[in-house]
Write a structure and sequence with these properties.
Largest sheet of chain B: 7 strands, mixed
Largest sheet of chain A: 6 strands, mixed
Largest interface: A-B, 31 and 32 residues
Oligomer: heterodimer
Helix content of chain B: under 10%
Radius of gyration of chain A: 14 Å
Mean pLDDT of chain A: 89
Shape of chain B: globular
Helix content of chain A: under 10%
Chain lengths: 113, 116
């Protein structure tokens, strides 16, 4: 299938290492943030979300950190596996209602076995 | 079905042709979104429905783009007189306000449109 990762920043890590993917969001009024994983030829898949009243949220092998002061999000993946190889997007939502998401540029994660 | 489905998965159109892209959201999901994803870019918002009402169409790039959801379930994105710049993956997502304050949007696999 076609690659969604052309012209994107790439992070290359060794299997078993931790990965950190960063994202700068655009609007200080955004109150909800999501990280999505997108594999080639597929739609974005939800990984983890966080609301603006939190600084940190943990899931299974993943942690999201939110720094509202500098409008920065990060996604940490522990013990990265080859199956984690994909393009990762952060997305922000401006309001608490069912509004549209604004996606960042994306980062391609490549895991070396 | 278990997830959002879209058809066709691939569509090749000659410049000037009209196309119709279909989205079947998750059953019971009230909200439905269409996004356009150019190669190597993140998805960009096109339009949003709550049930059958189109509440936001600010992302539609031109009046050649039209979306409908007449019965509040299946949605169709229509592009008239397609142009080469319309070539992209068109993603549909649905979500349910019944999930509390979560706004998680579930995405379909997309339709890759290529305009020759």
């Amino acid at each position: 299938g076609e690659s969604v990762g052309l012209h994107l920043p790439t992070l290359s890590v060794q299997e078993g290492d931790n990965s950190i993917i960063n994202c700068a969001y655009s609007n200080s009024a955004s109150d909800y943030f999501i990280w999505y994983k997108q594999e080639s030829g597929k739609g974005p898949q939800f990984i983890i979300d966080i609301r603006s009243n939190m600084d940190k949220r943990q899931g299974q092998r993943v942690t999201v950190l939110l720094n509202k002061t500098v409008k920065h999000l990060s996604l940490q993946i522990a013990a990265t596996q080859p199956g984690d190889s994909a393009v990762y997007f952060c997305a922000e939502n401006l309001g608490g209602s069912q509004g549209n998401l604004i996606f960042g540029k994306g980062t391609k994660l490549s895991v070396k076995p | 079905g278990a997830g959002v489905s879209q058809s066709p998965r691939y569509k090749v159109a000659k410049r000037g042709q009209d196309v119709a892209l279909r989205c079947d959201p998750i059953s019971g999901h009230v909200s439905l979104f269409w996004y356009q994803q150019a190669l190597g870019q993140g998805p960009e918002f096109l339009t949003y429905f709550q049930n059958e009402a189109q509440l936001d169409k600010s992302g539609l790039p031109s009046d050649r783009f039209f979306a409908e959801r007449p019965e509040g379930s299946v949605s169709t994105l229509k592009i008239q007189r397609t142009q080469q710049e319309d070539s992209a993956v068109y993603l549909c997502a649905s979500s349910s306000p019944g999930q509390g304050q979560r706004n998680e949007q579930f995405f379909g696999p997309g339709t890759r449109l290529t305009v020759l």
